[in-house]
């Protein structure tokens, strides 16, 4: 199968004064196009950091990240942003909605960046899919945590990414809404072949993916298919 994401010998080390903190330690990982992968592990183990590196939001200290055939390491900030806009959707753990824009406008941003002619109608449709058609005009502060998370989801879906990263996408949702969102995610995989990489503490969600990667202390301690667990 074709590889869409290839991570080789990646580490992330933060320096503060004369201390260095190794957050990711020699990670190797390869993900095939159309695959569904869950990343699990304790708080602070490096999951969000790893996702950010995979998506080209951040740079690794050592090693290489190749996304859809493009080595991200040698690219400038702007070049990485262009790759992200073309291939990547990202649902942030802390949502990262733009506070001065309404829910609708937040979802319209990536569509407009791609030159969509009917971004408003498309964004409304996406908000409808996450059950927020009646909150389109609300600003992020006027939305609950779960609602902000769903706007973040709609925004991540909007440019039909080849690769969708989701950092605890159901972390703030009740069971019923969570189930709807999970269905949306997996429908994208089935219908559009979107590769899913999902950080989650939800073992039921993890069990629905093809592969579960466990991280501890910045290292991969397991990388297996749930059917063999
Ligand atoms: N900019 C930074 N500078 C220094 N340390 C950082 C920085 N960002 C993250 N860390 C540290 O890296 C470690 C991993 O953080 P990360 O956010 O990747 O964990 P996580 O597995 O996503 O945890 P959680 O489940 O709580 O979201 C943490 O110990 C954190 O304190
Ligand atoms: Mg995290």
From TrEMBL:
- Taking every annotated instance into account, which residue ranges of this chain make up the domain ABC transporter? 5-229
CDD domains from the UniProt entry: ABC_MJ0796_LolCDE_FtsE
Cross-referenced SMART domains, in alphabetical order?
AAA (SM00382)
Show the GO MF annotations: ATP binding; ATP hydrolysis activity; transmembrane transporter activity
Q: Which SUPFAM superfamilies match?
A: P-loop containing nucleoside triphosphate hydrolases (SSF52540)
Sorted keywords for this record are:
ATP-binding, Nucleotide-binding, Transport
Q: Which PROSITE patterns match?
A: ABC_TRANSPORTER_1, ABC_TRANSPORTER_2
> What are its GO cellular component terms?
membrane protein complex; plasma membrane
Ranges in coiled-coil conformation:
none
PANTHER family, per this entry? IMPORT ATP-BINDING PROTEIN (PTHR24220)
Protein family: Belongs to the ABC transporter superfamily. Macrolide exporter (TC 3.A.1.122) family.
Q: Please identify the protein, giving its name as recorded.
A: ABC transporter ATP-binding protein
Organism of origin: Pedobacter polaris
Q: What phylogenetic lineage does the species belong to?
A: Bacteria, Pseudomonadati, Bacteroidota, Sphingobacteriia, Sphingobacteriales
């Amino acid at each position: 199968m074709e590889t869409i994401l290839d991570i080789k010998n990646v580490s992330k080390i933060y320096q503060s004064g004369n201390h260095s903190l190794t957050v990711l330690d020699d990670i190797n990982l390869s993900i095939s196009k159309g695959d569904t992968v869950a990343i699990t592990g304790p708080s602070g183990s490096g999951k969000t950091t790893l996702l950010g590196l995979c998506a080209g939001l951040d740079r690794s200290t050592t090693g290489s990240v190749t996304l859809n055939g493009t080595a991200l390491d040698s690219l400038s900030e702007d070049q990485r942003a262009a790759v992200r806009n073309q291939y990547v959707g990202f649902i942030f753990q802390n949502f990262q909605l733009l506070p001065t824009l309404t829910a609708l406008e937040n979802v319209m941003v990536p569509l407009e960046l791609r030159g969509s002619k009917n971004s408003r109608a498309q964004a409304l449709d996406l908000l409808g899919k996450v059950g927020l058609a009646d909150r389109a005009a609300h600003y992020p502060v006027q939305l609950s945590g779960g609602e902000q998370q769903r706007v973040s989801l709609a925004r991540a879906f909007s440019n039909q990414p080849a690769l969708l990263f989701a950092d605890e996408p159901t972390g703030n949702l009740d069971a019923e809404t969570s189930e709807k969102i999970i269905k949306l995610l997996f429908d994208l995989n089935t219908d559009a072949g979107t590769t899913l990489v999902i950080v989650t503490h939800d073992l039921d969600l993890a069990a629905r993916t093809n592969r579960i990667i466990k991280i501890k202390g910045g290292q991969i301690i397991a990388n297996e298919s749930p059917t063999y667990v």
